[in-house]
Amino acid sequence: MATTSDIRNGLCIKYNNDIYKIVEFLHVKPGKGPAFVRTKLKSLSTGKVLDNTFPAGRKIDDIRVETQKFQYLYPEGDSYHFMNTQDYNQITLQKSALDAPELLKEGEIVTIIINTEDNMPLSVDMPSSVILEITHTEPGVKGNTATNATKPATVETGANINVPLFINEGDKIKIDTAKGAYLERVKE
C-alpha cells in the first residue's frame, strides 16, 4: 500500500476495479482546507484519461511492475508487434496501450511496463524523442521566418507534424513524443 505522497508520473495503481497509470499530478496546498493531489489517470485497459483528486494521505493500491526493452517490429490492423531484445520473444499489443503509435518507426526500441503478478503487458513508454524524415511538405518561402510561423508536414510514419517554414522534404527532424511536437532539425 502506498499513499498520495508516493504519487509520481508513470506509477500504476488499482482504482475503481481497473488499472490506471498516472500521467500527470500536482500536489495542492490551499490556504484554507486540507491538501490534496490532483491527478490525470490513463486507463490501461480502455485508454481513456480521467481527472481525479485524492485527499492528502489517502492510501492508494499501487501495482508492482517491471520494465523491459522491446523492439517495434510492424503494425497489423490495430495490433502492434514487438520483440523482447533479450530473449527474442514476440508479443502483440493493441493500439490503446500505446501513447503515440503514429510516431513509431520499425526498429524503434521502446520500454514496455509489465505487471509482475500476471506477466501481462500494461503500457508502452516511447523514448522521449524520435528522429523521423519528412516525406511531404510545402516548400518554405525564403525570408518569411521573422515570426514563429509553421506549416504542416508528413513524416515517414504517416503522422502530421507542424514544422517551421525552413524545413523541407528529406530533412530529418527530432520530435517530442509526449507532445507530438517539432523539437529541432537533425544534421547528418
From TrEMBL:
Provide the organism lineage as a comma list.
Bacteria, Pseudomonadati, Bacteroidota, Flavobacteriia, Flavobacteriales
Instruction: Note the Pfam families from the entry.
Output: EFP (PF01132), EFP_N (PF08207), Elong-fact-P_C (PF09285)
Elongation factor P C-terminal domain segment(s): 130-185
Which HAMAP family does the annotation name?
EF_P (MF_00141)
- Naturally occurring in which organism (per UniProt): Lutibacter aestuarii
Q: State the function annotated in the UniProt record.
A: Involved in peptide bond synthesis. Stimulates efficient translation and peptide-bond synthesis on native or reconstituted 70S ribosomes in vitro. Probably functions indirectly by altering the affinity of the ribosome for aminoacyl-tRNA, thus increasing their reactivity as acceptors for peptidyl transferase.
What PROSITE patterns is this protein classified in? EFP (PS01275)
Q: Which residues form a coiled coil?
A: none
Give the Translation elongation factor P/YeiP central domain ranges. Answer: 67-122
Q: In which pathway does it act?
A: Protein biosynthesis; polypeptide chain elongation
Q: Name one GO molecular function term.
A: translation elongation factor activity
Family of the protein in this entry: Belongs to the elongation factor P family.
Q: Which InterPro entries match?
A: Elong-fact-P_C (IPR015365), NA-bd_OB-fold (IPR012340), Rib_uL2_dom2 (IPR014722), Transl_elong_fac_P/YeiP (IPR020599), Transl_elong_KOW-like (IPR013185), Transl_elong_P/YeiP_cen (IPR001059), Transl_elong_P/YeiP_CS (IPR013852), Transl_elongation_fac_P (IPR011768)
Keywords for the protein's UniProt record, in alphabetical order: Cytoplasm, Elongation factor, Protein biosynthesis
Q: What is this protein called?
A: Elongation factor P
Q: Where in the cell is it found?
A: Cytoplasm
Give me the gene this protein comes from: efp
